[in-house]
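Researcher: Good morning. I'm working through a list of sequences from a screen, and I'd like to move beyond sequence-only analysis. For each chain I'm collecting a predicted structure so we can compare shapes side by side. This is the next one on the list. No need for commentary yet; just the structure.
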Amino acid sequence: MKGLLPALLLFLCGCAAHPIHPGTANAFDSGAYDTLSVTDSVIQSTKVDLAANKFPASIAGNVKAALNALINAYDIADNFYCGQPVGTPLTCQPNSYHALAMAGTATPTQNSQLQNDLNQVSSASAALVTAKGAQ
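Model: Good morning. Structure tokens for this chain:
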């Protein structure tokens, strides 16, 4: 799990080259998708670990608090990025960042907001790693 955070942080600082996923508008859109996908995986695996009592009681409360903060940051970023998917196959809300990026109409202000939201996800991810490392 600790290996996922460096990949997430590399995306956020722009330090690594990323392939652009099919169905994304550009490298930033694709990187946001990557960040949200990795973060969802971290959230789900941490929930499983908490439910299985894999953390010592002395840190479990801190891990849960850090996880809840990460979930909150993730939800904000994911809602801005895609909103509640609709249709079959699932697509992002028409007013979501991703949909606007695909249409070529995402503004610099929207790019900045998404970057800020992703930075919050990164900070919350780092806090979760720190909480888990207190064993």
